[in-house]
Design a protein that fits this description.
It is built from 13 helices and ten strands. By secondary structure, the protein is an alpha/beta fold. The strands form two sheets. It has a seven-stranded mixed sheet, sandwiched between helices. The radius of gyration is 21 Å and the shape is globular. It starts with a strand and ends with a helix.
């Protein structure tokens, strides 16, 4: 583990050096939320600390919501192998957990060239959560409110500055290049971070217990047991099929390709939603999931059964974005709580 301490002043100097050559995506406070903004290359304002995850996840930075793939491919048949470098700051553990799903889908066997390009050119600078939102539930799906893997650099507040951990060769190389800005961490600083992480984890777990959010066993076993439950139809009555839950989710990855134009051909790739009635429709008009409750159930089945079985990870990171975005006020925690009570 490569951990170093940096003062706040030296950290901003380090970020400034990155901003001279990279596009910087960073969280900006907006009322009780944080929203990602971009600056650079060429300069950047001082980047603030976000106590919890931003409204946006890492997904749109790596897997664009809308992309003209014909234009990007061009005559050469492949996207630019490099692409302008970018760094994203303030990613949280729930954001990093989504990378296991996205990497499996887009970078495992036959890599998606657009995702692979974005992954290569993106430096991920994560940070510990120092607070949590009412909708946060990472501990229910096996996560923690602080990063342990998936980052290039991670920040933890300590000693009037930060402990910076390198999580990749790319991150370690950057620290080595600016070694004069960093110093070895003290035992007190390491203990400070460990204690803060322990306190926040306990507080988040207590929030879940107080509301009865304990699913019992594994989510995979639960979904198998309640596949025919009437809860799906009850919850579907509130769904308006807007797709917001899919679009804000850091792991949802389905897309649709459509061709446009006659004189100038364009092929667009857009995010798709499994809640749309036409999502699973096949040639000839057949639809294996014509009812809304079936599509709602399919989303949970994908998160809590398919992903654990096929990918070895949860398809839900517990970020709570879907809870905030749902117009029908469908709360995934409440749905799973109801399902866990089914026999």
């Amino acid at each position: 583990m490569d951990v170093r301490h940096v003062s706040e002043q030296n950290w901003h100097a380090f970020v400034g050096s990155l901003a001279r050559t990279m596009r910087i995506c960073h969280p900006v406070a907006h009322e009780d939320d944080y929203r990602l903004a971009a600056c650079g290359p060429g300069g950047c304002p001082r980047i603030g600390w976000n106590r919890y995850r931003a409204v946006q996840s890492l997904k749109p930075l790596l897997f664009e919501a809308r992309l003209d793939v014909g234009e990007v491919l061009g005559a050469g048949g492949a996207p630019d192998a490099g692409g302008a470098p970018q760094a994203v700051f303030g990613a949280k553990a729930c954001d990093l957990a989504s990378l296991a799903v996205l990497d499996f889908v887009f970078a495992d066997e036959t890599a998606d060239p657009f995702y692979a390009r974005n992954r290569r050119r993106t430096l991920i600078v994560s940070s510990d959560c120092t607070a949590f939102k009412e909708v946060c539930f990472c501990t229910l799906v096996g996560g923690k409110p602080y990063p342990e893997k998936g980052f290039d650099l991670n920040l933890s507040p300590a000693g009037g500055g930060y402990l910076v951990e390198a999580g990749s060769p790319k991150g370690r190389a950057l620290l080595d290049e600016a070694r004069e800005l960093f110093s070895p961490p003290s035992a007190a600083q390491l203990a400070e971070v460990a204690a803060a992480r322990k306190r926040l984890t306990a507080a988040l777990e207590e929030q879940q217990r107080a509301r009865g959010y304990a699913w019992g066993g594994t989510s995979k076993e639960l979904i198998e047991r309640v596949f025919e439950s009437g809860v799906w139809a009850e919850e579907a009555e509130r769904c308006v099929e807007c797709g917001a839950c899919n679009f804000v989710c850091p792991t949802c990855h389905c897309f649709l390709l459509s061709d446009h134009g006659r004189e100038r051909f364009t092929r667009l790739r857009n995010w798709d939603s499994c809640q749309y009635k036409g999502f699973a429709r096949v040639g000839g008009g057949g639809n294996p999931r014509p009812e809304l409750y079936q599509r709602l159930r399919n989303r949970y089945e994908k998160k809590f059964h398919f992903c654990p079985v096929v990918m070895g990870v949860s398809g839900c990171t517990g970020c709570g974005r879907c809870v905030e975005a749902c117009i029908g006020r469908i709360d995934m925690r409440e749905v799973m709580k109801k399902l866990s009570g089914c026999r």
